[in-house]
Amino acid sequence: MLVRIIEAPSVSVLSTAGSTGREIASGDTVYTTGNNSPSGSVEAIALVKKNPVYRTNNLTARDWSGKRAEAVLILEPVKDSNGAIRPHVFGQGKTLFAGAEGAGANAGVVNTPPGSTDIVYRDRDQWIAVYVADPTGPDSSRVPDSNPFNIYNSSTGQYQRGRILRTSVRWPVDDVENTVAANDFFTVVRFGSFVNSALPSCRGQRRLGFAGAWRDELPGRLLFERQHRSGTRYAEIFESRRGCL
Q1: Which of 145, 237, 133, 149 is closest to 184 using CA atoms?
Q2: Are 187 and 130 spatial neighbours (Cβ–Cβ below 8 Å)?
Q3: Which of 68, 71, 126, 204 gets the highest tally of CB atoms within 10 A of its CB?
């Protein structure tokens, strides 16, 4: 078993009618300004650490060009020329720009969907992905593929991931959407329910989330879903449920 943990701030964004329909992706710079213009004085700025976490697994919530996307961005703070961390607390209702600072495109508004009780900006979350692997059987019993979630084909009697010998060291790909037969040595674990979700430690702005995974309908994308005790669900690279330890 292998566990990966990402601890990072996050912000909720809605692609609105007034936006340009610009899709936000991993590696983008996002920022807000005092006057809601792209060249205004920057109030908050950060780097998008992973592809967005979408609020549902339906196509509408991931429709950037149609200006209907509902997403949560996992952020990485950036530093100024003196090495100081720049402000990255994104205010509710602010226009969110994506792209080069001072010339970014209107990508939506910092907000949550109507009726949501979620927090717009979260200063720290722990995002956890769990992987399993094994050394069982000869290579002839293995048929690895591009699916990071399957384990065993009962019809053929073959494992659907490569084996990892105890004399070797392998790591899963950074984003499971990049899984191919040549690197398919792990199965991503899916979790199906809350864990201790009623504990007081689950409340507030810092929580621990457990992640599993499934493949999205859109080519080249995966879903990561997290679910709060409120029932609000996000989705992108991994499927999961929120939990606390």
Answers
A1: 145
A2: no
A3: 71
Q: Are 36 and 95 in contact (CB under 8 A)?
A: yes
| Nearest C-alpha neighbor of 153 from the set 139, 162, 142, 164 | 142
The CA dihedral of 32, 36, 39, 42, to the nearest 10 degrees, is: -30
154: its two tokens: 């009962």
Judge contact between 65 and 21, C-beta under 8 A: yes
Residue 12: beta bridge partners? 72
How do beta strands 226-227 and 29-33 pair?
Answer: unpaired
User: 3-class DSSP state for residue 57?
Assistant: coil
Tens-place pLDDT, residues 193-241: 444 444 444 444 444 444 433 333 333 333 333 333 333 333 333 333 3
Residue-wise pLDDT tens digits, 8-35: 999 999 999 999 999 999 899 999 999 9
Q: How far apart are CA 91 and CA 70, in angstroms?
A: 17
CA distance 142 to 116: 45
Tokens for 6, please give them.
């990402």
Highest mean pLDDT among 51-55, 119-123, 170-174: 119-123
